[in-house]
């Protein structure tokens, strides 16, 4: 790598941050069962502790996304406890995720439910989540809905759309100055005929209708197989509607595998569109990078370190694309040269530059090796094993 490329990588990493999900540290399962890990986090404090370790190893994960139902056992009253943990572990609460999909009342949906009382219950929970976010000084409210239908003819698609528009507008009206509402889409699962917010176009329309503080959240696992995710990213960027990401990788559906494990070039292409946009406009895109994964077989902490490492590497590769050269090639329709320009950056081994950058920040050059020799896993395995045997039921 040239000195200039190394400098570019260092500069890019200095401002790169990725948020960890609290639920990624707890035992989670598949539709068919759950294999518990003795070292999985069983309490909110343990989730903070694990997140804090990852932040100390990588330097780029200062915030933890929280799921209201799983992490705020006392509702808004838990905010004080969160503040205490944030101060103790040096990790701040990040995006706040309401949960309107697990309780029995949500069998036929939340904001799209034909029953007005259920729609109200869902809205109340979202408003409570906004209050929590305000109290904790969290900027983003992350909204994902399991709503939809399993069989043709069983629900009015247009009516549900209207109910969603109403609910999201109501919620939007409660956001404080500077807060944002991120609308996530997903084409199927748990609903298998349609989901109410199935794709980026629907999320975009919903967000635009709700108001200026609403943006779209792209979960990399929430697309059909052949869909071009980086094109969606480029369109949302140009419309100033890209609010954030949920990073994960997949082979088939919403597999929630570690980032870049299946298709690192895909992640690189997404980062490239963002960096290219920033280069062209001279502005920094205001995007919340977040992880949303469910590690069933790999160790929770190791899987998270792998993902953060992959994000750093792929972001660094995207940063060294020669944008000037690329746009000259694009203008001339020099196809092979343009493609090579992209591939050259992707093929560069950025690991030594990242290791040097980490060293300069007083961080371990190899976070995985540092984790393995830290004794942390052995300690938490002893502390948590018995509690994990006892907690085999809930999702997180
Ligand atoms: C969904 C979606 C949401 C996440 C839940 C647990 O598939 O990705 O973001 O909160 O899973
Ligand atoms: Mn997600
Ligand atoms: Mn998902």
Descriptive notes:
The protein is of the alpha/beta class and 396 residues long. Helix content is 49%, strand content 11%. The chain has 15 helices and ten strands. The protein is globular and about 60 Å long. The mean pLDDT is 96. One manganese (II) ion (MN) is lined by residues 219, 221-222, 254, 292.
Notable characteristics:
396 residues; five-stranded parallel beta sheet; three-stranded parallel beta sheet; 10 strands; binds beta-L-rhamnopyranose; binds manganese (II) ion
Low-confidence stretches: none
What class would the helix/strand composition place it in?
alpha/beta
Shape: globular
The main sheet comes to: 5 strands, parallel
User: What's the SSE pattern?
Assistant: HEHEHHEHEEHEEHEHEHEHHHHHH
Instruction: Give the number of DSSP strands.
Output: 10
Helical stretch tally: 15
Mean pLDDT: 96
Rg is 21 Å
Proportion of helical residues: 40-55%
Quickly describe the structure:
This protein is α/β, with parallel strands linked by helices and 396 residues long.
List the helices and strands and how they pair.
Layout: H1 3-14, E1 20-21, H2 44-58, E2 63-67, H3 68-71, H4 79-89, E3 92-97, H5 116-136, E4 140-143, E5 148-149, H6 157-173, E6 180-184, E7 194-195, H7 200-210, E8 214-219, H8 229-238, E9 242-247, H9 264-281, E10 288-291, H10 300-319, H11 323-332, H12 335-347, H13 351-360, H14 367-372, H15 376-390
Parallel strand pairs: 1-2, 2-3, 4-6, 6-8, 8-9, 9-10
Antiparallel strand pairs: 5-7
Helix pairs in contact: 1-10, 2-4, 2-10, 5-6, 6-7, 8-9, 9-10, 10-12, 11-12
This protein binds beta-L-rhamnopyranose and manganese (II) ion (2 copies).
């Amino acid at each position: 790598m040239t000195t200039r490329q190394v400098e570019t990588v260092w500069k890019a990493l200095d401002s790169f941050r990725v948020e960890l999900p609290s639920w990624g540290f707890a035992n989670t399962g598949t539709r068919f069962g759950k294999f518990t890990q003795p070292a999985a986090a069983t309490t909110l404090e343990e989730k903070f502790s694990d997140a804090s370790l990852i932040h100390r190893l990588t330097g780029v994960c200062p915030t933890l996304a929280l799921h209201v139902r799983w992490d705020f056992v006392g509702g808004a009253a838990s905010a004080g406890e969160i503040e205490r943990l944030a101060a103790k572990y040096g990790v701040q609460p990040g995006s706040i995720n309401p949960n309107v999909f697990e309780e029995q009342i949500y069998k036929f949906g939340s904001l799209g439910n034909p029953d007005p009382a259920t729609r109200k219950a869902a809205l109340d929970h979202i408003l409570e989540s906004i209050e929590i976010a305000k109290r904790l000084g969290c900027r983003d409210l992350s909204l994902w809905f399991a709503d939809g239908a399993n069989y043709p003819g069983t629900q009015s698609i247009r009516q549900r759309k209207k109910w969603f528009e109403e609910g999201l507008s109501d919620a939007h009206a409660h956001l404080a100055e500077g807060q944002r509402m991120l609308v996530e889409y997903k084409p199927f699962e748990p609903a298998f005929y349609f989901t109410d917010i199935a794709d980026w176009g629907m999320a975009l329309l919903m967000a635009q209708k709700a108001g200026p503080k609403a943006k779209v959240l792209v979960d990399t696992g929430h697309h059909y197989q052949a869909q071009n995710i980086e094109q969606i990213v480029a369109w949302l960027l140009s419309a100033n509607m890209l609010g954030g990401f949920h990073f994960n990788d997949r082979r088939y559906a919403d597999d929630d595998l570690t980032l870049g494990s299946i298709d690192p070039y895909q992640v690189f292409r997404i980062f490239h569109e963002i960096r290219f946009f920033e280069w062209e406009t001279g502005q920094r895109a205001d995007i919340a990078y977040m992880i949303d994964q469910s590690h069933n077989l790999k160790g929770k902490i190791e899987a998270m370190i792998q993902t953060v490492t992959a994000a750093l590497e792929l972001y660094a590769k995207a940063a060294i694309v020669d944008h000037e050269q690329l746009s000259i090639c694009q203008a001339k329709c020099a196809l092979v040269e343009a493609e090579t320009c992209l591939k050259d950056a992707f093929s560069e081994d950025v690991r030594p530059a990242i290791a040097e950058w980490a060293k300069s920040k007083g961080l371990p050059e190899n976070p995985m090796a540092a984790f393995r020799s830290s004794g942390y896993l052995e300690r938490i395995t002893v502390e948590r094993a018995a509690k994990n045997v006892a907690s085999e039921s809930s999702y997180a």
